[in-house]
Design a protein that fits this description.
This protein is of the alpha/beta class. The chain is 22% helix and 29% strand. α1 runs parallel beside α2, α1 runs parallel beside α6 and α4 packs parallel to α5. The protein binds flavin-adenine dinucleotide. One of its GO terms (biological process) is response to reactive oxygen species.
């Protein structure tokens, strides 16, 4: 069995692996796709000490650092069930989709999250070519340009306010008949001179030319009229879904499906820790996931050294 088994190989899992391995204990990482969301990222310009890199380069560097240590990397492995220890201090089991079972004294859950897609023509085609999901990450790439934000909940309205300070113009489109964000955010948004808001607006297409976004088409759900807005970027803000469906019933999750953790990364299950985008920690970013991964590994080590000698 492992001392620390990490499920998920994104920035959180990689940081947890490095910190755990440096304690000289048995560490394994099971990941569906090592590197995680970073693989789908173009420019990364906000990881501290790295002026600029790209996703695949960053993912390769994560893996190289983990491989530098004696860590058992099990790539292309999907976990689909967690079995808590049957007795205090006992082994925790993780069942894999391929039928195998891994056993460990502690488990760190770092399965990340995925952005919900709008599923309209153009979205996949222009991903990273004008279609973006993270205003903190990609907002500055659209400086002085025109963008749209799809979604009028808190994240959409926050994104629109944030982007309005950087870009030339923001068009926010919301499917429902009203913005669902907090009133204070809505009034802030409405006070901005370079923002246009459309409610009852169903996005039907993201258009482009020469491999880049050039517009967003929406249908007014009341009049049925279709409108094409010319712009250079589209931020999809209709939800971030944590990859925690497989943990339902075994680990406490928030109403958004995020693993509930305390300040040290403990879940409600003894010996089970969590870090990164799959947890309740706010602001889903690489630097935050990496910090929390290292924190969870140190907490797991703390737990291990407190186990009674048998
Ligand atoms: P993830 O990166 O999501 O990794 C999760 C890991 O778990 C993966 O290895 C996955 O395969 C694995 N996994 C999932 N489910 C299972 C399972 N059941 N069994 C086994 N393994 C599983 N952040 C920034 O700071 N700067 C940026 O510029 C930036 N740009 C971004 C651009 C895009 C397009 C996207 C999508 C995100 C961007 N982010 C950026 C956000 C950043 O990528 C995430 O915050 C970060 O990757 C979270 O790390 P994580 O380790 O928690 O999860």
């Amino acid at each position: 069995p492992f001392d620390v088994l990490i499920v998920g190989g994104g920035p959180a899992g990689a940081a947890a692996a490095v910190y755990a391995a440096r304690k000289g204990i048995r560490v394994g990482v099971a990941a569906e796709r090592f590197g995680g969301q970073v693989n789908d990222t173009m420019a990364i310009e906000n990881y501290i000490s790295v002026l600029e890199t790209d996703g695949p380069k960053f993912a390769a560097a994560l893996e190289a650092q983990v491989r530098h240590y004696d860590v058992d990397i099990m790539n292309l492995q999907r976990a689909d069930k967690l079995l808590p220890a049957s007795e205090p201090g006992g082994l925790i089991e993780v069942q894999l989709a391929n039928g195998g079972t891994l056993k460990s004294k502690t488990v760190i859950l770092s399965t990340g999250a995925r952005w919900r897609n709008v599923n309209v023509p153009g979205e996949q085609e222009y991903k990273n070519k004008g279609v973006a999901y993270c205003p903190h990450c990609d907002g500055p790439l659209f400086k002085g340009k025109r963008v749209s934000v799809i979604g009028g909940g808190n994240s959409g309205v926050e994104a629109a306010i944030d982007l309005a300070g950087l870009v030339a113009h923001v068009t926010l489109v919301e499917f429902a008949d009203a913005l669902k964000a907090d009133a204070v955010l809505v009034s802030k948004l409405k006070s901005l001179p370079n923002v246009t808001i459309h409610v009852n607006a169903q996005t039907t297409e993201i258009t482009g030319t020469d491999g880049k976004v050039n517009g967003l088409r929406y249908k007014d759900r009341v009049s049925g009229v279709e409108t094409l807005v010319e712009l250079e970027g589209v931020f999809v803000q209709i939800g971030l879904v944590p990859n925690t469906e497989w943990l339902k019933g075994d680990v406490n999750l928030s109403r958004f499906g995020e693993i509930e953790i305390d300040a040290k990364g403990h879940t409600n299950v003894p010996g089970v820790f969590a870090a990164g985008d799959c947890t309740t920690v706010p602001y889903k970013q690489i630097v935050i996931a990496a910090g929390d991964g290292s924190k969870a590994a140190l907490s797991a080590f703390d737990y291990l050294i407190r186990q009674p000698v048998v």
